[in-house]
Amino acid sequence: MSFQEYAANASRSVRSQRLKPVAIAGAVLLVCVCAIAIIFGFFSSSSDAFAIQKADESSSNEASQEDVGEAAQDASIYVHVAGSVNAPGLYELPQDARLAQAIEAAGGFSEDAATSSVNLARTVEDGEQILVSSAVVQEGGEVASAEGASAASPGTVNINTADESELQTISGIGPSKASKIIAYREANGSFSSVDELCNVSGIGEKTLESIRDQISVG
Prior knowledge:
Layout (H helix, E strand, L loop, with lengths): L2 H72 L1 E8 L5 E6 L4 H7 L23 E4 L2 E3 L5 E3 L11 E2 L5 H4 L7 H14 L16 H7 L3 E2 L2
Parallel strand pairs: 1-3, 6-7
Antiparallel strand pairs: 1-2, 4-5
């Protein structure tokens, strides 16, 4: 080997030894950069997923609240207003409506209505029939019901004076209905006619017709 070849080999060896640390440092730096990029990408994607999930949950909660609000607004009841009103019929009212609203929906009282026969402040129930009695002026100026009036007669129960036990002697009137009759009487005064009994919750036209000959208001 000539001196020139030996010198060239030695030079290449020196350069190779100098390049090894640089290559190692470059490789380490490259690995670190890749690791940082992977970690950043993971946390970024996790954060986006969490944000999307929270947004979806928030939208779902808002939709549920809107549905509840709409259901509450749409809630309504139906009542049948009959008797001495200007426009008898079936009417849709909001929940917790008062009897005054039902009378207003039916065009108000007619001229012959016995307005004292109803309690305008009470709430009405879905499916209820509201029967407004009529009144006529008798000789001497006394006002009496012209619909379903029934004087006391032997064998009948006076629904204006009977206690719970007496009311329960009427066919189909149990403890619950008897107590409701008395509660209505205490809140609204004496019944002006037997037909007014339909204003008591739980007593409808069929029940009234089946017991009409057993009751009186005299």
